[in-house]
Amino acid sequence: MIRRVLAIFLLILAACIVIAVPLLILTPAGNQILSTLHLTEPTPTPALLKPMPTPTPAPILTVKGPLPSVQASAAYLLDMDTQHVLDDDNGEQPLPMASTTKIMTALVAIQTGNLEQLIPVKQDAYNRVHIDGGSSANLRVGDKIPLKELLYGLLLPSGDDAAVAIADELGEGSQETFVQRMNLFAYRLHLFQTHYTNVDGLTLEDNAPHYTTAADLARLAQYAMSIPLFAQIVHTPKYYLPATASHLAYTWLTTNNLLTTYDGMLGIKTGHTYAAGYCLVFAAERNKHHLIGVILNSPSEVQRDHDVAKMLNWGFSLPLLPSSS
């Protein structure tokens, strides 16, 4: 009898515990009581977070020592890989730019024309060379040359006749329309200190508002060199176009002497008029570094090429140091 009573008592006690423990967990007082009995799980100690390491800045070509001395009205050198300006000598001064104008002429032609369309050579293209004294691709009036091929005649021998022929056709008979597109394209590229009045850079009026800056030209050239066809053309020392039923055969040589004399030269465009002096937009590569630069109004072709080589050698010799920014 006693055993039966004891069993019933223990059963009732167990039932009370089963009912009471959840109720205790749901109340602050119950939690306090249970914690003294070590019935609740201990709160885990949070792991200490390791601080993130500070990233090491990528090394860039860093200007040390004096800048290269050049004989020109403006000089500008840009690291194409980092957009770091290495040399800026009067780079924001508006100046005439002669045939470096044809960088924009070629870009507008590539962007707006059909590379396979035939470009007719008209009398005004011939006159631009033989009457106005422009540089020549030796085009024959009446020839019809595919635009892609004629771009070599525009950029290698710096043919003013090629520029006029392209503008006549793509401007729908109006060089002024083509020039408007050039200025619009300059605006879209944020070249706010650049303005064109013609397609070849040959200014016959002393005060013609045809100008750019070395800094603008460097930015324009960098964009141009990102277009594979353009980069291919300006990297070509000599181009031969066989005769077809629509045109004569042509051989065009680059006016950029450094393309064959400076190791790593990639292009891009020369220029010269009396007002602009000797100009060169240039790009080169060495040890996987790419530099692009501009010289405007150098006193001679020899001096210009000498100074460009000096600027590039100086730029490529700069130490690679972590950026401070």
UniProtKB/TrEMBL annotation:
What the entry lists under PROSITE patterns is as follows: PROKAR_LIPOPROTEIN
A Pfam family of this chain: Peptidase_S11
Top-rank taxon of the source lineage equals Bacteria
Which residue intervals define the domain Peptidase S11 D-alanyl-D-alanine carboxypeptidase A N-terminal in the entry? 68-299
Q: Where does substrate bind?
A: K269
One GO MF term on file is: serine-type D-Ala-D-Ala carboxypeptidase activity
Keywords per UniProt: Carboxypeptidase, Cell shape, Cell wall biogenesis/degradation, Hydrolase, Peptidoglycan synthesis, Protease, Signal
Q: Where, by residue number, is the active site?
A: S99, K102, S158
Biological-process GO terms, alphabetical = cell wall organization; peptidoglycan biosynthetic process; proteolysis; regulation of cell shape
Matching entries from InterPro entries are given as: Beta-lactam/transpept-like, Peptidase_S11, Peptidase_S11_N
Family, as annotated: Belongs to the peptidase S11 family.
Q: Identify this protein by name.
A: D-alanyl-D-alanine carboxypeptidase
